[in-house]
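User: I'm new to structure prediction. If I give you an amino acid sequence, what do you actually give back? Let's try with this one:
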Amino acid sequence: MDKKKNDVEIERLKRSILDKDKFELRAQKLNLLADGFNEEALPSEAKIFKALSDINRLKIVQLLKEGELCVCELTFALSNSQSTVSHHLSVLKNAGLVKERKEGKWSYFRLSDGAIIELLKQVKLLVDK
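Assistant: Good question. You get back a string of structure tokens that encode the predicted 3D arrangement of the chain. For your 129 residues, that looks like this:
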């Protein structure tokens, strides 16, 4: 954050926290938190959430939880065109959420690992509250 913007934010924080000692502690904590961002990892994390932000891609992930499927099976299950399903699979693959295996002219897809399933379980807990 540039110096001028940081100064403005500090002044705004001072106005909202009237106790000077409390302000100093909060400012230190916030600086530590802000310094702790892994700037290199954030774009990859955002890519994963963007990939999961589409209903069709979430459906694909749900289907792949049951095991490996070929594009034709996914096309049938989703009642979408092959090109649409392939596009969604490409987004999921680029985000590292699915793996592709080719067998002749067929492409089979599976979830990359169990982490995506755990993430979806956590989302379900949030939704069911």
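You can read the tokens as a compact description of the fold. Here is one thing that stands out. The chain has a mean pLDDT of 85.
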